[in-house]
Design brief:
single chain, alpha/beta, Rossmann fold, Glutathione S-transferase Yfyf (Class Pi), Chain A, domain 2, six-stranded mixed β-sheet, globular
């Protein structure tokens, strides 16, 4: 199977890694070592090979190794559709992040044409019980994996909404100013809504008839503020809500207020009311469904980044997860504190040990213990 994979990863002054190089094949990569050694930093570096701010949503200055503060670089060789690519991203101290693809400066959005990356991190374990913003971000990240242009639509919508909110806070009442901004918001907002609906449909379809040890999630999207779909109704709703929005000082209707709802299908229990283990299993189920849907659409499974994935999973579920990853043919980079957590992966995986040595992360390839 010719799946997406990172074949070589080099880090320079990135987080805790002064220098690091990893050569990988198509197998899942199990990364183990003590807490704070720098395991997650490897995953974060790979996440920056796709559009966006990575799995921690960090700014460029937050990624530089201290105390040197010399700037940081991530170099990667990537194989996709039988073609090899080189991605370089980084930032000098105090400067914005830059991206190069095959030796040419490009935008972050262009990376989606080469590499599709999905991730699951411990911060997402509370996804179902915390605020709606995190669930929207989760859905938009999944949407971006199917529709790379979704990022541009979101940027257009957010820019117009910020300008509208500024008018609202300044108590501006000129309808002409609002009309132009609301037209841009409505156009971009309708695109966002359509992209999200496509993604939910793809995730639901990918869960149907899938042989999986993880629970099926029924997903739905409740539009924020009012049930408005399409550019015309959204523009009308924005215009009709100006008085209310003036009082609030912000925009109260639109896709920025949508709510992703999930239900544990077999039990008909809302995800927020499930146990911690069930909530984790639902998240894993959705990541796997996302990967299966991308495989069906593009012919290639995405790269998976699964940080501390074994948390809240018993040995049977861990083994089932590794089986599904291998059956999918995905290159998965997984972290855990102990190599025993990857016992179910066996010889199907590649093993890296990360340790802190005199304040710097050191990565060593290991044979299966």
């Amino acid at each position: 199977m010719n799946g997406l994979r990172v074949t070589r990863l080099q880090l320079s002054h990135f987080r805790s890694h002064q220098r690091a190089e990893v050569v990988a094949d198509a197998r899942p990569v199990a990364i183990y070592g003590p807490n704070g050694a720098g395991k997650t930093n490897l995953l974060e570096a790979i996440s920056l090979l796709s559009p966006g701010r990575g799995l921690r949503r960090a700014g460029a200055d937050d990624l530089v190794r201290r105390p040197e503060a010399l700037g940081w670089r991530v170099f990667a060789d990537v194989t996709a559709k039988r073609q090899n690519h080189e991605i370089v991203t980084g930032a000098e101290a105090g400067q914005a992040r830059t991206v190069q693809l095959d030796g040419k400066t490009t935008t972050q959005t262009a990376l989606a044409d080469v590499l599709r990356v999905l991730w699951l991190v411990p911060a997402m374990d509370r996804l179902w019980i915390e605020g709606a913003e995190g669930r929207r971000r989760f859905l938009d990240r999944a949407t971006l994996s199917f529709v790379p242009s979704h990022a541009e639509a979101t940027l257009r919508y957010d820019k117009a909404m910020r300008e509208r909110n500024r008018l609202l806070k300044d108590m501006v009442r000129d309808a002409h100013w609002y009309g132009a901004l609301e037209g841009r918001m409505a156009e971009a907002g309708a695109e966002i809504q359509a992209n999200r609906a496509l993604t939910i449909a793809a995730l639901l379809a990918a869960q149907q008839d899938a042989a999986t040890a993880f629970p099926t999630a029924t997903l739905s999207l409740v539009e924020g503020g009012d049930d408005v779909q399409g550019a015309g109704p959204l523009r009308e709703a924005l215009a009709a809500g100006r008085a209310r929005d003036l009082a609030a000082g912000r925009t109260l209707v639109g896709p920025h207020r949508s709510e992703l709802d999930a239900v544990f299908a077999d039990k008909n229990v809302a995800a927020r009311d499930c146990s911690t283990g069930e909530q984790k299993a639902l998240l894993i189920s959705l990541i796997l469904a996302n990967a299966r849907a991308l495989m069906a659409e593009t012919g290639q499974p995405p790269v998976l980044l699964l940080d501390e994935v074994a948390a809240h999973l018993d040995s049977a579920r861990r083994a089932a997860l590794y089986d599904e990853i291998c059956a999918l043919g995905a290159q998965a980079w997984m972290t855990g504190t102990e190599v025993q957590l990857f016992e179910g992966l066996g010889t199907r995986g590649q093993y890296l040990e990360v340790n802190d040595v005199q304040g710097a992360s050191v990565v060593s390839e290991r044979n299966l213990p």
